[in-house]
Design brief:
The chain has strands at 2-5, 28-37, 40-45, 49-50, 57-60, 70-79, 85-92. With 95 residues, it is an all-beta fold. Strands 2, 3, 4, 6 and 7 form a five-stranded antiparallel beta sheet that branches. A two-stranded antiparallel ribbon has the order 1-5. The relative contact order is 0.29.
Length: 95
Amino acid sequence: MNHDIRNAIAHWPKVAPVLTPPRNPIGAFSATVSCITPDGVVNVTTGPFAASKTGDSTISATVALPHPCKNPEVFVGLTRSNGAFVWFAHSNSED
């Protein structure tokens, strides 16, 4: 998976503080691929990739997806210290 993220600046207090002037307060982004399998929804997350103060990041990773993997969607966000993934952008196969 290769994703170039540009100007991703979170403005949600639950995800990151709102800064003035606007800038990205998150040091690394991760991506999660979510898909539907016969056993339910499966999420596979990359490791963290550095993110700039302007919200730019390049995520280049290989993840092992289940087979079949129907309706895959990619979510970009951060993984908190407790392991919870919080997303702020996504795309799907129809984009």
